[in-house]
Design goal:
With 299 residues, the chain is mainly alpha-helical. The protein has nine helices and five strands, in the order ααααββααββααβα. The strands form two sheets. Strands 2-1-5 form a three-stranded antiparallel sheet.
């Protein structure tokens, strides 16, 4: 397949962790088909990005009609994830953010690791918890408590699972110590085993539940602190997402630095008026559950 000069195998590799050779071949074929449909002679990085989104998240839902309120809610939700990620030193760099619906997701923020990682450190776990809570916190700050939507369901599931593993598998609770409270093949909801075959006191079970809640609440508080202190960045990024729908990591960094975006087709970045408080309607669709960051093994 003839490739354009902007194609970066390293970026493609970072964005396809765990993919087999057949998966990568399918990705290349999909990118070539996208380029052919546009009448292009070379396959560009934009074609690879489109193919990767299609393969990993599903086909773009062009027929889906979203109201302005729904778009605005989604833009602030994804902007919340992105702003928190930028202010968490242990978080992976942002690759892109989009509010284009794909599959069951109304939008996503994709973060890519800079290098291979074989372990998962405590500071990164807490950073990921804060980023996961960023979308819901942004909705609450901008639209109010009563207008928080169901779009954070995947984020909540991810955060709860991560906090549960920190407590029951990885020994990261000071109260419970470096002990394993969950069997390898056992399904656990919070501190409670489904089959209850394990011997565990009620007091220990309650402590596990309390520690899971505490860890998730700490992530929520960290996200709320970041977004409250940087609400101008939240408005700026959400406005740009409403205008352009998809932003690269470099463009997001420019916006956070107060610089204008230089897009020839649009003649530069034009700010959009901030959302009206409380104007959005909660919806049943969800945003991307992992905000574009693959969960670690065992999480």
């Amino acid at each position: 397949v003839p490739l354009a000069p902007d194609v970066s195998p390293r970026v493609i590799a970072r964005g396809t962790p765990g993919s087999s050779g057949a998966d990568l071949a399918n990705l290349v074929n999909e990118a070539a088909l996208m380029a052919a449909r546009k009448g292009k002679r070379l396959v560009s990085m934009m074609d690879f990005e489109g193919a990767k989104d299609k393969v990993m998240m599903g086909v773009e839902r062009k027929s889906m009609v979203m109201t302005e309120d729904e778009k605005r809610m989604t833009a602030y939700h994804e902007a919340g994830h992105a702003v928190v990620a930028l202010h968490e030193p242990a978080s992976d760099p942002i690759h892109k953010a989009t509010i284009i619906p794909r599959g069951r997701a109304l939008g996503m923020v994709m973060r890519l690791p800079e290098r291979d990682s074989y372990s998962y450190h405590r500071d990164k776990m807490h950073a990921n918890l804060a980023v996961a809570m960023g979308g819901r916190v942004a909705e609450e700050i901008i639209f109010g408590y009563e207008k928080v939507s169901s779009g954070a369901s995947g984020d909540i599931q991810m955060a709860t699972g991560l906090a549960r593993d920190m407590v029951t598998r990885w020994g990261m609770s000071d109260k419970l110590g470096p002990l394993q409270y969950a069997e390898a093949d056992e399904e656990v909801f919070l501190g409670y085993s489904v089959n209850r075959q394990r011997q565990m006191s009620d007091e220990t079970t309650r402590t596990i539940d309390a520690e899971i809640r505490r860890i998730v609440d700490e992530g929520y508080d960290r996200a709320k602190h970041v977004l409250t202190e940087n609400v101008d960045q939240l408005h700026s990024l959400a406005s740009a997402l409403l205008e352009y729908e998809t932003l690269s990591g470099d463009e997001i960094k420019k916006l956070m630095a107060g610089e204008a975006l230089d897009r020839p087709t649009d003649g530069g970045y034009r700010p959009v008026a901030p959302a009206s408080i409380g104007s959005s309607i909660p919806k049943s669709g969800r945003r991307s559950g992992g905000f574009g960051n693959p969960a670690p093994q065992g999480a």
